[in-house]
Amino acid sequence: MPESDVIPEYSALKNAFNKFGYFRTSKEGFFEKIGSLLDRTMYIFLYVVATLVFSISCAFVSSNNNWWLGIGVGSLFLILAAIGNHFDMERSKEENSEIKKKLEMEKVKVRKAGEESERTGIKLQETNLKLIETHEQLVISILKSIFKNLELDTYTRVSIYFEECGQFLILGRYSQNPKFKEIHTRVFPINKGALSKAWEHGQYYDDECCSYDDKSGYEHYQKQKFDYDQEQTESLTMKSCEYVGVALTHIDEHIGVILFKSENKEFVNKQRDGILEQVANYHTQLSDRIVSGKLIHSETQSTKDVDEEFMLTMLIQSEVQL
Prior knowledge:
With about 325 residues, the protein is of the alpha+beta class. It folds into two domains: about 5-80, no CATH class; about 130-300, Beta-Lactamase, CATH 3.30.450.40. Helices cover about 65% and strands about 15% of the residues. It contains nine helices and six strands, in the order ααααββαβαβααββα. Strands 3-2-1-6-5-4 form a six-stranded antiparallel β-sheet. Helix 3 (about 40-60) runs antiparallel to helix 4 (about 65-150) and helix 4 (about 65-150) packs antiparallel against helix 9. About 20% of the residues are buried.
């Protein structure tokens, strides 16, 4: 017989015997496994034994006077099996009850965690809103100073914007005219209007547009120069006809724009030099406000995203446990 055939047979025999003895290789011995199985199925085993004893005793009723002894033993096994099965079912109910209690406790924990997260989220949102409002007031105070230094009128306003993800977000606005200083839109396209031209070229002046008194001429200019259609032009709160825009930089990179608008003609001619001087004087403060504004916006968005993700996780866990 080839040696290669003998070795596998020897290994199989060795493995079989290694399951027994003091130095067996398996963690749980063969008879331990049988004992564990017998522990779990004891009452079923008693039912089987009782049935066998009944069957054997009935078979010898006519030939053996001690048949009643077998019936008694079988009855005893049957009674023990029934009692054991009864207690086993009670333990099963108790374990199920414990599992349900634990499940309810976990549901309560998830619900409380969700409520706590919601409360924390609300407080955080309130804090963020206060921070944004405070920062906006700081920006407006600078714009007010510039406005006052230039002695601008109620037909003029100044706004400051910062670039974020390929679009402009307004950081602050001021005008002595309450109608013009209101902020209706906070996000603006980066490729439209006087805002985009100042962003692209560093400075932008425009005094060629006619006033809104010539409505058709005004709408034609807005379409040709800034790509605003008639509906967009009519929706503008301020019908500006002259513009001065200056890009604001940080480490020689454009980070935002300050834009002056007026409904009056001759605005650029009269105010351009003064505007450039004021922007130069306040450039550092304006740039710092943009940098901090971008940071606040980024942190606010991150907090919002994390909070939404946490609430979604809590909801999924709750649904899974239900």
